[in-house]
Amino acid sequence: MEEVQKTLSSSPLYNDEKPPQRKISCFRRHRYRTLAAVAGTIALLGITLGVGLGVGLTNSGDAPKSTSTVSADRRSASPDATASQASGCQAGSLNLLGGLVMANTTPLWQPLPGTPWQIVLSQPIDATKALVPALSVYDIDMYGNTALTIQQMHLQGIRVICYFSAGSWEAYRPDAGLFSYQDLGNNLNGWPGEKWLNTQSKGVRDIMANRIKLAAEKGCDAVDPDNLDGFETNTGFPLTASTALDYLTFLSVTAASYNMAIGLKNAGPIATNATCLVEFSIIESCISNSECSIYQNFIAAGKPVFQIEYPLGAPGYVTSQALSRSCKTNGNVGYSEIIKGKDLGGWVEYCDGTVFNTATY
What we know:
Blueprint: E1 2-8, E2 21-28, H1 42-45, H2 83-86, E3 118-120, E4 137-141, H3 147-155, E5 159-165, E6 168-170, E7 184-187, E8 194-197, H4 202-218, E9 222-226, H5 241-257, E10 261-265, H6 271-274, E11 280-284, H7 296-300, E12 305-309, H8 320-327, E13 336-339, E14 347-349, E15 355-357
Parallel strand pairs: 3-4, 4-5, 5-9, 9-10, 10-11, 11-12, 12-13
Antiparallel strand pairs: 1-2, 6-8, 7-8, 14-15
Protein name: alpha-galactosidase
Domain Glycoside-hydrolase family GH114 TIM-barrel: 117-346
Region (Disordered): 1-20, 61-86
C-alpha cells in the first residue's frame, strides 16, 4: 500500500461515529505480492480443475475458520489463476475460477472500465445538495460518513465505495479496543498510533468481517480495504505474499456475502492473480512508479482501474506540464484517472483540465 496521512475531521457526530482522524492513502509504501489463495466452494461443485484447485478457503493452511458472516459459496478463487483465466472473469457474476460462475445469486455491482470517479477521504461528504463532479462513483471513508449521507448519494445516482484499513490498527477508530494485544505488530513507520495487524488471526478477521457488515448496513456498494501488503515490511508477524492473497480472498468472500463489491488496492504484482477476486482496482502513482501496464489485466477482464496521481502543485496549482506528465502514458489506456492532492480532500482535477471541489463538512 502507499503512505498515509491523517488529518482531523470537523464533521458532526452521528450515532455510531466518533470524531475520527482521517487516514489517507498517498504514496506507495510497499510493492510486491505473489499468489496464494484458496477456493471456498470446490466440494459443492464436485469438479476438478487442472489448475490445482481443491483447497477450501476455510481449510487453507493455517488460515482461521470463516466466521458466521461469511458465506463460503459466494466466492471462490483459483490458487493458480493466470492472465488468460482472469480475462475470462464474467463481470459482476460472483464467478472466480477463471470465469466459472460459482453461485446462482444476485450479481455484484460491476463498474465498467473507464468509469469516471472521485475519491474524498479527509472530510465527510456533504451530500445535502447535488455533488460536483456529477459522477456515478465516489470512494469515501466508511467511518467518517453516515448512512444518511450514503443514502443521499444514492438518490443522486452515485455508487459508493467505502474505505477502511484492513491491515493496520488505528488507535482512533471506534473499534480499536476490540483488537487483542497479541494481534498488534510493529508501528507503521512514520505514523504514531498505528500498528500492523496479524491478518491471519481469527480475531482480526472477525473484526474486519464486522467492518464489512457495518459498510453493508450503511448502504455501501463496495469496499476499499487498505494496507493488505504488510508482508513487504517488518510487521512483527510471519506474513507472506501467500497470506496476503489468502486474506484478500477472505475479505472478498465476506463482502460478497453482503452483495458488496470489493477492490484491490495497488499490489500490482498480484493484479493478474487477483483479478477474479475483486470487481475493480484502485492504484496510486503508477506513472511515477512506472508500473501502470501491470494492471491492464483488469481492463481485459472488463473491470475498471481507478488511478490516482499526485503531481507537484496539487491541489490547486498543477501546471499544464505537470498535468501532461501525470496523464500521458501508454500503460494506462482505459484507466479512470484523477489528479489529487496528498490529503485526498474534495479537490480533484481531470486530465482534460477540468477542476472541481466536492462539498465536504
